[in-house]
Amino acid sequence: MTPRKDDSDVNIVYREDGFRSRTGHWVRTSEEAMICTWLETRDVPHRHAGEVFRLPAGSTVAPRVYIPSITLDQKDKKGKTMIIEPLDGFGLTQGKMRLLAAFREQYRKTYHLVVLVTRQLLRKVPKDARDALIAFEDIKLLERMIPFEEQ
Fold first, then answer.
1. CA distance 110 to 116
2. pTM, whole model, 2 decimals?
3. Domain ranges of the chain
4. Which of 86, 91, 141, 90 is nearest to 115 (CA)?
5. Distance separating alpha carbons of residues 69 and 49, to the nearest angstrom
6. Are the CB atoms for 100 and 129 separated by under 8 Å?
7. 110-123 pLDDT per residue, tens
8. What dihedral do alpha carbons 124, 77, 42, 28 form, nearest 10°?
9. Strand 64-66 with 26-27, pairing
10. Is the domain 2-144 a CATH 3.40.50 member?
C-alpha cells in the first residue's frame, strides 16, 4: 500500500493492486474498469480517484474522506461536475451510503452524483445518497447525462 496525502492532515492509503481497464487506466474495481472502458469508447475525458473530499466528522472523532471513483472532466449544462460511483454488493454498505449522503449534502451545488449498481441492488441505494441511479445493465442511460463536448 502506498500512503498519499492531500492538502489536509488526513492520510489516504491507496492499494497498488486493482484492475486495469481496456484503455490502460488503473481502477479499484472491475465495475469501475467496465465504466472506464465505456467512457473511453465514447471519448469522454475523465479521471479516477483524482480528488479527495474531506467531510464533516459528525459524531466520530476522525474526519471522513470521500474519494470518487470516476470524475468527468467537463461540466454539464448546469455547471456541475459529474461523479460516477459504481457499487457492487460489497461496496453497498450503510457506511458508504452515509458517506455519499454527506458528500451530496455538502457539494450538491457543484457536483452531480450518479450511482451505478446491479438491477437487484437498485432499491438499496437511498435517495439522499445520489442524484441519479442507474443499473449497470442500463448503462446506455448514462449517455443522456454525460456532457459531451460540442463538435
1. 20
2. 0.81
3. 2-144
4. 86
5. 5
6. yes
7. 999 999 999 999 99
8. -40
9. unpaired
10. no
